[in-house]
Amino acid sequence: MMINEKEALTLLSKYNSGTATDTEIKLLESWYSAEILKQSLSETEEDFSHLKDEIWAGTLQRANLTEEEEHISEKRPVRSIKRWYQLTAAAVILIIGSVYLLNKQQTGENSLSKTLEIADHITAGKNKATLTLANGHQIILSDDVKGKLAEEAGVSITKTSSGELIYTVISKPDNATPSGSVYNTISTAAGENYQVVLPDGSKIKLNAASSLKYPASFAFQKDRRVELIGEAYFEVAKDKNHPFKVKTNAQEVEVLGTHFNISSYADHAITNTTLIEGSVKVSSLSYTEGKERAAHTILLKPGEQALQKANNITMVPADIEQATAWTEGWFYFKSTNLQDVLSEAAKWYDLEIVYRGAIPTDRFTGKIPKTASLGKFIKLLQLSDIKFSIEGRKMIIN
């Protein structure tokens, strides 16, 4: 839901008086994020100063202070005031309101301007992938490729004009070539995502830097097994006689027909599985003498998420909107640490992230469209005092 400035001011008044609901606070935060992260920030300093002043005044009021007390207290160092303000800011909106003007002034500096100019030329990812057939032949799935691509194991493989790979069963595969031995792999590089429709009608959307290995046909197979590296969103077609199983490096997820998301990147210590509807069984995998076995299994209900680190799985309430935001074309951060924020940026903008010195402990909240250039994305970083530069495809964090 979008709100205008008049509505935002009304919510701001409620926030400062302590009567705003959680929903109203979220609306206000979203409005600020949207305003600040617009591609062309044409607003003058005065346009935001009255909002900043209202936020600051409200913060002082909630702490039983006044503007006059702040100005006449010469014994109180400025640094301690700023530190107090950071500690008492209960919502991201306060952080955004207080640092926006400072960062706007800093954009005039040559080094930052140069960095932003470079970043603006690094564009967002595309709907693209590479299909590897069972015979090793590779097909680049770009906007230029359309129509029938191949036929194997009794299945026709076509690419639609909307950028979707579809497998259609046209005949039963020859028994001399069991369908279970004919595997295809669809993979995305950094800055790519893609959707595939399998022969059973299941839809899988693949996030950047991910791959999915699957049989060209599920004919004559007891289970519908696929293997995932990275992240994917699954809409599994119902078939109670043939369970759908997703294997990652650390776990196996078994379903009959449901919607769920799995994130299992090698550079993330935690694999998470989020259930949107239906039910799933999540099992951590261990290996003894080269043999695979389920070490720990839990059942998820809609709105739950399984977090796995090593062989340990815990179940927590899921934030469905955040977990699936990427499928709708959004980055969505909620008190997300800098490393995880930049990990997503690296995959989508094809970047190498280099940290020099201690890694900042800043956390970020906000939504950014994935169609935005890197220049727009890093405006989120400007809301903190993080120093960074860009050299080609390398982002250096100091």
UniProtKB/TrEMBL annotation:
Pfam families: FecR, FecR_C
Source organism, top-level taxon: Bacteria
Domain FecR protein, first and last residues per copy: 185-281
Gene Ontology molecular-function annotations: sigma factor antagonist activity
InterPro entries assigned: FecR, FecR_C, Ferrdict_sens_TM
Start and end residues of each Protein FecR C-terminal domain: 331-397
Record's protein name: Ferric-dicitrate binding protein FerR (Iron transport regulator)
